[in-house]
Amino acid sequence: MAFLDNSGDIILDAVLTDTGRMRLARGDGSFRITKFALGDDEINYENYNKLHASGSAYYDLEILQSPVLEAFTNNASSMKSHCISISRTDLLYLPIIKINSLMSSTEQNPSGAHMVACDLSTETAFAGGSSGTKGLIYGASLGTPFHIRLDQGIDGTDSDGNPVIAPSHALDADLVETQYQILIDNRLGNVRSNKDNMAKVSFIDDDNIASYYLNLGTDLEFVTENTVRDTLSTQAIAGPRGTILSFGIQSSLELNTSTYLFNKLGSTLNMVENDGTTVSQVRYIDSIVRIKGSTTGYTVDVPIRFIKKV
Fold first, then answer.
1. Are 284 and 261 in contact (CB under 8 A)?
2. How does residue 47 score in pLDDT terms, banded at 50, 70 and 90?
3. How far apart are CA 305 and CA 45, in angstroms?
4. By the 8 A CB rule, do 241 and 152 touch?
């Protein structure tokens, strides 16, 4: 991976992803580029200088000359920040997607990640009780009290911490996120609802990253409207709110029944069991689940730690 020097002429550096190369290699004439995405991960818009001594033509010069990453074929690593087209010119704020860990059922572990217990013995050892591991998602059994929640809306606040736009205002319809894409390492886990129903995998790429597309209206166990219009301590979004994405994670059969991936990808640590005194060694793998909003292009990475008692 390297940066391209963009200080001179405009450079266009484009490559196919590994999946695109595989489809092109079929050589049967079926390969067609029907969609593409643009991103601006490398750009720092704070470099826009309205006080440039040479005039308005130079305000954005530093941005235009920013080095950009050369194109690379691993689609799992490219473009976290997608560009979108908005025809409206009256927008002062854009919505975001934010992890909501403010409720007992959605809280993250103090480690900063959501924990997934990969088998029944791990659930029994660390779930429940006054000393149970906080935010532990049951990855093996059904009926987990914990899940992952993301809220969407406008989160702007002023210097005193008050919402720039009150949550009593409805979010404009064209800014409401109606479809989410969840990307997760298929070797480690699968997406399921709070009611323990499995989400349907849309696509698994060459890197074993599974994509799930969940829609408002058709996937109500996952995506719902946020109808709360008050300022509450359980709301992650300070201003107008759009939709809520909620889901759990079921550990993969391989993590549930073997230690192969833990030995290959993970490490070990000591954790206190739910009796408050017993210290046990656990194997763990740190990963992320990536959430993308299809309407706004906003992306959030949710840290996940898969654990298994030794």
1. no
2. very high
3. 33
4. yes
Q: Which helix (H) or strand (E) holds 204?
A: strand 203-204
Question: d(Cα 232, Cα 80) in Å, to the nearest integer?
Answer: 30
Q: What 3-state class would DSSP assign to 22?
A: helix
pTM given for the model: 0.84
Taking every pair of C-alpha atoms in the chain, what is the biggest distance, in angstroms? Answer: 69
- Looking at residue 127, its amino acid is A
pLDDT per position as a tens digit, 220-257: 999 999 999 988 889 999 999 999 999 999 999 999 99
Distance CA 27, CA 301 (A): 36
Cα(195)–Cα(247) distance, integer angstroms: 9
- Which tokens is 136 given? 């532990």
SS3 for 118? coil
Cα 190-203-2 angle, rounded to 5 deg: 100
The stretches of the chain forming alpha helices (DSSP H) are: 18-24, 61-64, 120-126, 253-257, 260-265
DSSP tag of 175: G
Separation between Cα atoms, residue 238 and residue 154, nearest integer Å? 7
- The rounded distance, in Å, linking the Cα atoms of 250 and 193 is 10
C-alpha–C-alpha distance, residues 106 and 247, integer Å? 10
Pairing type for strands 241-251 and 223-225 reads antiparallel
**Closest to 305 in 3D by CA, of 164, 203, 215, 188:** 188
What is the Cβ-side half-sphere exposure of residue 131, based on CA atoms within 13 angstroms? 10
Say which DSSP state 57 is in: G
CB neighbourhood size of 184 (10 A): 26
Angle in degrees, CA 64, 97, 16, rounded to 5: 50
